[in-house]
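Let us begin with a simple case.
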Amino acid sequence: MALIKKSITEDSREEKEAEIVDIEKQIEALGGLHAYQRASLKGGDERSGRGACGKWLVQYLTPMASELREAAGTKADAPLKLLDIGALNGETYAKQSKWIKAEYIDLNPQHPAVTRQDFFLRPTPSKDVDRFHVLCLSLVVNFVDDPERRGIMLSHARTFLHNNGLLFLVLPLPCTKNSRYMTHERLKEICTAIGFQEIEFHFTKRLSYHLWRRVESGWEKQTVEKKMVNPGPARNNFCIVVK
């Protein structure tokens, strides 16, 4: 919020105060500061359902759809079930609605198609009918305020996926490129410890995309402690811990 206020031009005190109030209203309308920051990172196109994050994922889901259905034991013509956690809107996968059945949830939804729900409190599925072929955590994990809870969220996500299901993780680029405790290789170690295999990744100017597949055999959960892997004075402290 301080950074936003600093960007206000040097006008009269009254104009500054009015501008601050207007910005605060915009932030509140988007569901609070975290939602505002997510929306800013994703950009206007993401808010209107045409964002790059969804497009990047769909390009891989298209050729993998049959494989995902077969591994899950679902019908060959059934739509892929997708859970989008922290959704800004309910339209990201609207153009693919014939073959992707998306469910959108968020702590503080700002779109009628997004259901209010805390993913941490969502019960672990006991039946395959309640599981998903794909689960999206787009700019969500970085807003969890504790490294251990970030690990819990990723482990919890695994339980919602069908056999060989996919987890789509999006993080701000500094989380993997400028952290004392995280690099791309370290993130791969974490996903392996949780029971995933990274199959695709991509870096943009502001974001890192990671597509993980749930591993079914030869896997045993491991712990990952906080460890300095990229020391430096101008780095952040983003970290994920797995217990």
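The second case is a distinct protein. As before, the sequence precedes its structure tokens.
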Amino acid sequence: ADWLLSPTAEGFKVAVLSAKGEDLARQAGRFLSETESRTDTSHGDVEKQVHANLSARPEKIRAWLESNFSDPLWKEIGWRCHGCGACAFVCPTCHCFDIVDEPDSWDRGSRRRNWDTCQTALFTLHASGHNPRPDQPSRFRQRIMHKFSIYPARFGEILCTGCGRCIRTCAAGMDIIEILAQLDRRSAEEGM
């Protein structure tokens, strides 16, 4: 990300995160007002809200996820998911994509990277017809594993801001915060 936008009572606080973000800030300067400190990286109320929403213990959840890949709980939870991908399209941290090659003319083509969701059957479908995630529970498990185990193992951060957009958008009424609390309870019961 080049900017981090945090809602405030007056509008948004902009934290510039990259050289591209600096360039964009220069171009949009007339629409922005300077804050007290350009080096202030705190996000106050937003940060507190995220931690309040994610009261589960991410490190314990990660340990449970890594030890319970085949747990029956995935089928119980996962079959509720419709696989529509609405959660991914409103999530500020989801970044799955597809590469599409399309012909522009008889001798030229273009390659595009399209935003996609790991929640549909086509996302992992191979040209051979094999699908390593053939059912919705395995796709839902992948979403949770990626956000709370795989990504944190590589980069040290979970892929959830606690914003609740996925909860508000879910046609199946699934609540990721409640699912995390359920996983947290399971990890506590198993002594993790």
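The helical segments are 19-27, 44-53, 58-67, 73-78, 86-90, 136-155, 165-169, 176-189. DSSP finds eight helices and four strands in the chain.
Keep these points in mind for the review questions at the end of the chapter.
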